[in-house]
Specification:
By secondary structure, the protein is mainly alpha-helical. The chain has six helices and two strands. It has helices at residues 2-27, 35-47, 52-59, 63-75, 97-118, 123-139; strands spanning 79-84, 87-95. Helix 2 packs across helix 4 and helix 3 (52-59) crosses helix 4. 15% of the residues are buried.
Amino acid sequence: MVEDEIRDIAGRLHSASIRLLRTLRREDDGSGLTAPRLSALSVIVFAGPLSLAALAEAEQVRPPTMSRIVDALVKAGLVTRDPDPDDRRGVRIAATEPGRRLLDQGRARRVGALVERLRDLTDYERRALARGAELLERITR
């Protein structure tokens, strides 16, 4: 019985997560970046400068694919390729100020979209959702 309940909750969370991501992804249309480029930029901004190999691993793509993504981000002025202080032959990919700003603006749009939806909830529902958010944060660490 408990196992069935756990499976049901997991399935509902999975479906809700997909719908939430799709809803929020629509807010990213204003960035002018494709989803893979925006995702890579996010990793660079939040993780700090990374090697191409580390970035490819984080994004679960092959290095040649990541190289093309980084090329586009460099061309857009959102990241730079800097010499790697630990490897004379290597480079580190770092976010530029415009790259950070673009990501901050996107986050503000996504949070704003959620704020609009949360306004329709009752006080009880908002408190329940806040508790659920705490639990989601805990199980995804």
